[in-house]
Every structure is written in structure tokens, then in C-alpha cells.
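Sequence, please.
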């Protein structure tokens, strides 16, 4: 009874942060509530009244639910692309560069943006990055700017040796000038107007948050981000979020693993290039780009399937799509006839920019499970990308041609 009341309260807090109920499952909420109760040494009844009355405890509970996993130069390609794009856009000569990192977690992304700009010769004093996040714990770490070797694992050596100093405990301290280029602020991005406050931005990094948010919050935030870009600005999303930008008036950058979108079509391109769509909801990659959280036993079909899918997800997190694909392929061989495995294979082909293979995988998933919604949606996106809007629309409505299911 008390646990049910605690879950109601926890769910209310999640909705304030715009977090989707699909992400904040009962088992996650229960685990978070138990951790906090234990930390305070309170019985459920006492913890419930504390939670209802004490806003700082409400915040602590939300902190338990936030996933702050991040690292420098995450996925590599987005930052490599960003450096090249800045140069093409005329930096360093263009003056002050303004970029938003939202969410910024523990600062790794915001500082990576600074390093990407320094690398092409923009002076630290000409870089202004706003780092926004809901997590006070994350922002504290961001301001301290001390990181473990693990957080720097993907950073090019040249940047690591130039801008970090080794500490006696084995950690690394970021250079002061880099730190000064970032302004960290606590912000609930589910609240309207947070992006607008610092806009306009030359680029906005919004990676690995949208997949956590409920649909209305996600749409509103994306609209606000669009408004917050300069006319020739760039939006950089996480790899599981690229399909979410398809409805926006943006041109995807033709670069398999970077998932950047431009307000203006790149030179020589007549219309928007469709990205290889990556489905954000419904399948094992739904939380791609995020650490694997424990799920209830009821939430998974079998432990083998969960382990394999989680490992594929972890590989995808690290941008190792080919290895993730190999694993996903072996899963479908080990456990044939599972639509979800075919779907996973399709997602990874999409991420690798292989639309024909992706399409075949989604078709196999629909053959196995005609009501498999995520595959139907992916397939309709691919049909749309091919200009076959009529079939895409039919596919979306749940109607299928013989051709679509093989
Ligand atoms: C997985 S991290 C992503 C960090 C970074 N962008 C990256 O891709 O590495 C997700 C972050 O979203 C933040 N977050 C979740 N809900 C939020 C909200 N409503 N407003 C602001 N930040 C939020 C969490 O605190 C967490 O730090």
C-alpha cells in the first residue's frame, strides 16, 4: 500500500522532468525509492511523508533516476564532424562561437565541444558553451572538471596531453581556460523556455535525452531547439534519436555516424537528405546511448536474449555498430523466428547506412510478427526516404502490401 503511494509520488516527479513512463518503469522507481529509504534509514511510511513534504528529498529521488553516463568525444564522429564543420563555416575568423550542450551530464560533452573548437584554432576566449542539466550531482562534477581515465578513453591523445594534467590519484584535471569557456546551469529542459534563454546558438548538442522524454515534452523541446539555432546553425542528436528530427525542417548531414542536421541545405544538395532512420522507441536499442539499467524479469523474454541485446546495445553505445551487428546477427541465428532480433539487425543496418539490408530485416520482422509496430514504423520511414509516400502511409496505418512482408 505504502509502496503504491510512493510509486505515485515518484511517477509525479518523473513527469515534472518530462521523463517517459516507459523509461521510468515500476521496477526502476521501486529500486530508487528503496535506495533512498535505505540511505535515510526510514521505513516506507516515514519515507513517504518525508518525500511529500521535503523538496530536497524529491530532488534526491529524481537524481536516483537520472542516467548521467557520458564520456569525452562520445561516439567520436560527432566531434570530428563538428570540428570540420566549424572550419567550413569560417571559424575562427567568425568571432565568438556559441554552443549549447543540453543535457551536459557531468560536463564531458560541453568540454568536448570546447576541445573540438580549440583544435581548429578558435581561442578559448571566443568560445561560449552553455551546459544545461537537471542533475546537481552531475553539474558539481562538471564544475570540478576532474575526470577518470575511463571518461577520457575516446579522446584523441593529442587533446588529452595538451589540455589535461594528470593528478596523483590517477585522474585528470582539465585546463582552466577550457573550463572558463563553459557556463554550467541547472535546468529542467522539460520546462518551456530554457533553450530560448541563451539562444541563438551556432550549434546545439542534444544527445541522449530525447529518448527518455515523453512525446509532448520531446516535441516541444525539439521545436524550441529549432527556434534556438542561428539560421545556419547545426543540431547534433544522439544516434538513437536521428529519426526524431525527420519531421523538422532540417537537412541531415550525410555522414553515417554523426547524426547532425543543418538549418540550411549543404551546398550542392537540392533537398534534405534522409538519414538512415534509427528507431528510438520500442526495441532493445531504445535506450541506446544509455547505460543498461536493470529491468524486471517480466520485461524480458529470456535472459539470453536480454544479455545479447544488452551487449549489442553497449557496443552500439560505443559507436561500434559493426560489432553490434555481428552480435545481433548471431542472436537471430541462435534464436530464430524472433521479430525483435530482426528488428535489432534492421536498426544496426540503418545506423550503418545500409537501407536495403535494414529494409529486409524489418520485412522479416513483420513476416514473423505482423503487428510489430517499431518495424512497421521503420519500414515506413525507409519507404518515405525512397519517395514511396503512399506505401509509407499505408504501412503506418497498419496496412501492408505483399511486397512489404517477405
Ligand atoms: C545520458 S546523459 C547524456 C549526456 C550527454 N548529452 C551525452 O550524450 O553524453 C542524460 C542526461 O540527461 C539529463 N536529464 C534528464 N532529464 C532532464 C531534464 N528534464 N532536464 C535536463 N536534463 C535532464 C540527466 O541528468 C543526464 O545527465
Amino acid at each position: 500500500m505504502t509502496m503504491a503511494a510512493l510509486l505515485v509520488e515518484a511517477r509525479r516527479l518523473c513527469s515534472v522532468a518530462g521523463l517517459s513512463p516507459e523509461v521510468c518503469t515500476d521496477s526502476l522507481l521501486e529500486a530508487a525509492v528503496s535506495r533512498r529509504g535505505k540511505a535515510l534509514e526510514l521505513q516506507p511510511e516515514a519515507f513517504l511523508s518525508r518525500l511529500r513534504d521535503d523538496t530536497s528529498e524529491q530532488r534526491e529521488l529524481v537524481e536516483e533516476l537520472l542516467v548521467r553516463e557520458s564520456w569525452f568525444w562520445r561516439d567520436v564522429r560527432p566531434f570530428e564532424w563538428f570540428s570540420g564543420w566549424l572550419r567550413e563555416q569560417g571559424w575562427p575568423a567568425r568571432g565568438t562561437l556559441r554552443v549549447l550542450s543540453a543535457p551536459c551530464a557531468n560536463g564531458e560533452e560541453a568540454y568536448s565541444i570546447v576541445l573540438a573548437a580549440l583544435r581548429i584554432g578558435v581561442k578559448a576566449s571566443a568560445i561560449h558553451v552553455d551546459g544545461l542539466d537537471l542533475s546537481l550531482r552531475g553539474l558539481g562534477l562538471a564544475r570540478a572538471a576532474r575526470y577518470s581515465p575511463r571518461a577520457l578513453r575516446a579522446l584523441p591523445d593529442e587533446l588529452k596531453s595538451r589540455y589535461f594534467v594528470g593528478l596523483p590519484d590517477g585522474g585528470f584535471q582539465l585546463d582552466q581556460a577550457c573550463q572558463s569557456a563553459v557556463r554550467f546551469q541547472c535546468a529542467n529542459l522539460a520546462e518551456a523556455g530554457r533553450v530560448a534563454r541563451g539562444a541563438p546558438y551556432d550549434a546545439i548538442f542534444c544527445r541522449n535525452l530525447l529518448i527518455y522524454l515523453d512525446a509532448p515534452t520531446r516535441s516541444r523541446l525539439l521545436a524550441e531547439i529549432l527556434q534556438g539555432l542561428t539560421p545556419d546553425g547545426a543540431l547534433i542528436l544522439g544516434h538513437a534519436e536521428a529519426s526524431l528530427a525527420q519531421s523538422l525542417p532540417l537537412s541531415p548531414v550525410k555522414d553515417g555516424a554523426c547524426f547532425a542536421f543543418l538549418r540550411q541545405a549543404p551546398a550542392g544538395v537540392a533537398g534534405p537528405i534522409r538519414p538512415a532512420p534509427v528507431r528510438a522507441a520500442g526495441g532493445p536499442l531504445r535506450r541506446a546511448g544509455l547505460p543498461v539499467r536493470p529491468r524486471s524479469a517480466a520485461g524480458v523474454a529470456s535472459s539470453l536474449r536480454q544479455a545479447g541485446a544488452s551487449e549489442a546495445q553497449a557496443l552500439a553505445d560505443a559507436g561500434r555498430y559493426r560489432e553490434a551487428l555481428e552480435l545481433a546477427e548471431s542472436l537471430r541465428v541462435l534464436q530464430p523466428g524472433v521479430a525483435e532480433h530482426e528488428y535489432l539487425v534492421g536498426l544496426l543496418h540503418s545506423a550503418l547506412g545500409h537501407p536495403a539490408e535494414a529494409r529486409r530485416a524489418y520485412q522479416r520482422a513483420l513476416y514473423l510478427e505482423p503487428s510489430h509496430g517499431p518495424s512497421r514504423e521503420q519500414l515506413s520511414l525507409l519507404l518515405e526516404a525512397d519517395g514511396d509516400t503512399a506505401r509509407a502511409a499505408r504501412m503506418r496505418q497498419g496496412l501492408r502490401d505483399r511486397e512489404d512482408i517477405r
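Confidence is low (pLDDT under 50) at residues 265-305, 402-406.
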